[in-house]
Amino acid sequence: MLAEDVKEALMREEESDLHKALRKLVMDQHSRSASTMCGYHGQWDKHSDTVAGSVTADKVDQQAAKRKEPQKMVVPTARAQVHTLVSFLFLYFQQNQYAFEYSPQDAQDYKIREVVEKLVDRDCRKSKWPLVLYQFLLDAARFNLGVIEHTWVTEKSWFPQTTMNESSFMGASYTSTTEEMVETTTFQGNRIYSVSPYRFFPDPSVPLTRMQDGEFVGIEEEMSKTSLKKLQAEGVVAGVEHIRDFQTESWGAHGRSGKRNRYIKQPTTRNTDAQSDMVAVLRQQVKIIPKDFLVDGEPLGTEDYPVTWIVWVANDHRVIRAEPANYLHGEFTVSVGQFDSDIHEFVGQGLAGIVDKLQETISWFINSHILSVRRNLDHQLLFDPKYIDPAKLQSRAPMIPLRKSVERQRISDKVFQLQTTDVTGAHMANAQQLIELMFLVTGVNENATGSVGKGRRSATERGAANQGAGGRLRTIGACIFAQGLAPLSGALNINLRQGLERASFDRGVGAPDPTDPEAMALHEEQWALFKADPAHLAAGADFFVLDSTDPNQKMYMAQALSDLFKVVMTTPDAAAAFDIDASSVFKEIMQLRGSGDLNRHSLRARLKRQQTQQQLQPQPVNTLGNEQPGNPNAGGQG
Hints:
Blueprint: H1 4-11, H2 17-37, H3 41-52, H4 59-66, H5 77-93, E1 102-104, H6 107-110, H7 113-126, H8 129-143, E2 146-169, E3 172-195, E4 200-202, E5 216-224, H9 225-233, H10 248-253, H11 272-277, E6 278-288, E7 294-295, E8 298-299, E9 307-314, E10 318-324, E11 334-337, H12 351-377, E12 381-383, H13 390-394, E13 415-417, H14 427-442, H15 446-449, H16 459-499, H17 502-509, H18 517-530, H19 534-539, E14 543-545, H20 551-570, H21 572-578, H22 582-592, H23 603-616
Antiparallel strand pairs: 1-14, 2-3, 2-11, 4-5, 5-6, 6-9, 7-8, 9-10, 12-13
Helix pairs in contact: 3-12, 5-8, 5-12, 7-16, 12-14, 20-21, 20-22
């Protein structure tokens, strides 16, 4: 939320000198990035059409459609390759109980491991993480660039609340009700968004594998003034009413491509309301050294180290947000992933670009064969028009009458079909060979698609083939995870521990039973460990994110612990000799196998709940004074 002095400055009609300086810095950086990134948009358009299998019908196709014959087509091999890879990685990243798994570093961290995983998973589910992950992987395979943005939000809503008031008049008491709107926090946590690569503008001076080392990163999207006013009411932006309509010449002045120009069109093509509704908002994160950033000759601050600022510019002329980011993780809130993360190529080729030419050749082989068959079916004839009516012949009627003046002669002497040879007979075999070559080049082969290859194989050979195919795909997944998903999950964790309030924490992890002192004490300890001091969180060394692209690793760990558990349980002295808690080992085995927290099955907790319930039940009234069942001193006196 913007500070009051910042909000007041942004609400003024005239921009301050600071905001003018920030806007100039941001727009200069954006132009430098756009001149590089927009150069890839044409290539991405081609790759998008390749995956979609798009083809433009020409006159030959239009004529074939009228005759209900096959038209030229694009064999969607690229689509099969891309979606097989995306499906493989999607299932690997989604195979666990929670969206991300964390590896604790010491004994204290183990106490809040599940708390961290549960809260991060809550934020992911709130942001529809499967859809975000799918789009991220699809763009990485299609354009060699997938982009995810995250931000910290505190969402509030207003609800009516009825209050009962006790009043008196003339000695008589009565009750009245008042109803007012009360502001309530409905969600506090991370929000995760998919970002189109067309709208992504990083610092082009560093490779995308080191994007966090760049000076800036920006995302430009079209937003309605209605949504901006909602953000203004929430305190995120200010000065929305001072945004001018977008000038078309300004759009082209910063190197933007026409592909993204979906909402910002020529003013003459739409009415004034539609023109003024959409706003091009550049959300830039930029590293500034306050001591060196001068505004009217005065430094912005005393810091002589980079400080990340968040600056939003609307329609290239108005700053509507400008403040330090204040994220303890110290990174840009954008993560990228690439199919081929090569530092020698700024973007490079994705999977669609690799198979593009092979798909074109395969499609040409099949289309040329279809065209050749169509020509052979057209019945190219030589005939004498004196004996046969051309119109009748062209009608393709089942019965073609001869002209009345034709004398009785052999008809075969008057009409003759040309004998042609189909030179495309081997094209289908050639196309199949190219498909097999594509499997070899990309590694997304029949084993990855789940198809059974030709020929007989033993179980050992088939297992080795599956392992080899999975190994190439897991390598791609491991690089994507290390480049984009692992930093993202680490930032989500630190954001939660930095900004989450106690009420949201209790709702996220679940409040313990108030009648259970041990559970209450554990909950308080978890909250204290979760809300560590800022310096501790900034170090980010409590948890490391586990790579989930190899599920066998967890099974091996679970099996090793199972062997240890058997030894400890069968040899009582082993537990004391190695200082191992058998109960803790068993719980971790079940967690690795996906069972979750076993405390819900605790026998001790169940007995405590039963005892608490018995204590809370009303005791029967004894009408015989001191006589109690089982009391040896009761009765016998009189």
